[in-house]
Amino acid sequence: MIRTSFAVGLLALATALPAVAQVTTSPLQQADAQPSVSSQSGRQTGVVTMDRDDGRQVIVRSYEPRSAQADQYRVDFAALDVDGDGYISRVEAKAHPALDAEFNAIDSNRDGRLSREELAGWLR
C-alpha cells in the first residue's frame, strides 16, 4: 500500500509541476559585411554585450569616429577662453563649430562651461 501511495503521489506531483523549459543556445550569426554607416576606420574603443529579455544578445562596439582624426577637433583652449577664467563658456565655444555642436555631451558636470579636464576627456 505504501508503494502504491508513493507512486500515485509522485505521479500527482509530476503532473502538478509546470513543465521545465529546455534552454538551448545557438551561436550568433556573423555578418559578412560591415554596416554601411559604420565609422570603423579608427581603433575599437569598447564592446558591450547585453542579454535581452527575449533571449537574444545585443553586441555594441564603439570605434573612434573618422572625424576624431580631423583638424576640426583640434582645440586651442587658451585662445577659446577669451575672458581668461580657465573655462570655455557656451558663448566662447561658438567660435569652434565642433565644440559648439557637442558642448552638452562634453559638459559632464552640466555647469554650462568646459574645464580643461572635460575637454581632455572629449579629445582622448
Automatic annotation (TrEMBL):
It holds the Pfam family EF-hand_5. Gene3D superfamilies: EF-hand. Residues 26-47 have a biased composition (Polar residues). SUPFAM superfamilies: EF-hand (SSF47473). CDD domains: EFh (cd00051). InterPro entries: EF-hand-dom_pair, EF_Hand_1_Ca_BS, EF_hand_dom. Residues 94-124 form the EF-hand domain. Keywords: Signal. Residues 24-51 are annotated as: Disordered. Residues 1-21 form the signal peptide. This is EF-hand domain-containing protein. It comes from Luteimonas fraxinea.
